[in-house]
Amino acid sequence: EWSAAVAAIHSAVTADDTILLVCHVNPDGDALGSMLGVAQALVALGSTRLQATFPGPLTIPEPFAPMPGLHLLVAEDQAMARPDLLITFDAASESRLGKLRDRLETSGDSIVLDHHASFTGFGRHQLVAPTSAATAVIAAELVDRLGVALDRSIAECLYVGVITDTGSFRYELTTPAVHRLAARLVETGINPGEVSQRIFDSRTFGAVKLYGEVLSRAVLETEKRLVWTVATLDDLKRHDQPAHVLEGLIDGIRCTVEADVACLLKQVAPDEWSVSMRGRGGADVSRVAIALGGGGHRLAAGFTGRGSADEVMDQIRAAL
Ligand code: 5GP
Ligand code: MN
Ligand code: MN
Prior knowledge:
The structure is a single chain. A hairpin with a 3-residue loop joins strand 10 (295-296) and strand 11 (300-306). The chain has helices at residues 2-14, 29-45, 103-106, 135-146, 152-166, 176-187, 192-200, 205-216, 233-238, 251-254, 285-291, 309-319, and strands at 19-23, 50-53, 85-89, 109-114, 125-128, 219-221, 226-231, 261-269, 272-279, 295-296, 300-306. It has 320 residues and is of the alpha/beta class. The protein has twelve helices and eleven strands. The longest helix has 17 residues, at 29-45. Helices cover 38% and strands 18% of the residues. Residues 92-93, 96, 116, 118, 250, 276, 294-297, 300-304 line the site of guanosine-5'-monophosphate. Guanosine-5'-monophosphate binds next to strand 10 and strand 11.
């Protein structure tokens, strides 16, 4: 698939076709980093009619605010309706593209970059590798194959993707090749200490207190080897925090040695929960997430749960 995808991009840039880049809803560091890294590479190649976007409101979580390439972002309702070429990033299913999923139909051609075990198989050219640690790893290969030199701006975006999805080189897909890529990215002059601090180690005091509260109400179900907790809209309101501060909270319970599965239920509406699941050891949480309408990886997955928190937990226990 590589040669067809690379040829499609070269011909689109040569013809100065319109190119739309889309990443998944509630973008994380891998979604945004892989998309903005490739976006800047396409601009370097000569593309002048290019937009990057994601579904939902165009709010950039604080940790990503200084990311290079953000100037290429447009709100979803400003995104071109019929791009000549569509490229998607880190989205395992069409539903992860929200309203922008229609561009799969309206675009002239499409390229999909993804690394989820739960990838559902959409798009014309599928650059999909479930053994890749991050979509940013696939994006780096694309940049290389396009013949674009890695500059510091592209590298910083890809580095954010790599550290986000490997948990700073801790997770199982952290191969020698991932470290070699990281070395090349750091060689461009990016400051890994500064980038890591911004992504992982920056929280307001309100968020610290919120974390404490949510962690203190965690429940361990010894028989099921399950640990879980709930963060409500009221918690966010009381501590005056935006929803994205909850992104790192699952790591506060995934470390529980008495559990194989950790779940965090993040309330997004009275009867709607964004559920993060993490596995330890032999557990495969992606199978649970897929059974409940979501997706992800063996040790990190998620889905949208409906009903009360207790009802969602019952669904999880049943699926487990
Ligand atoms: P997180 O818990 O960090 O939000 O997500 C962990 C993993 O699960 C990510 O790889 C993400 O793509 C996947 N994931 C999380 N929520 C959903 C969801 O609602 N649907 C699908 N398909 N995947 C999800
Ligand atoms: Mn992602
Ligand atoms: Mn990813």
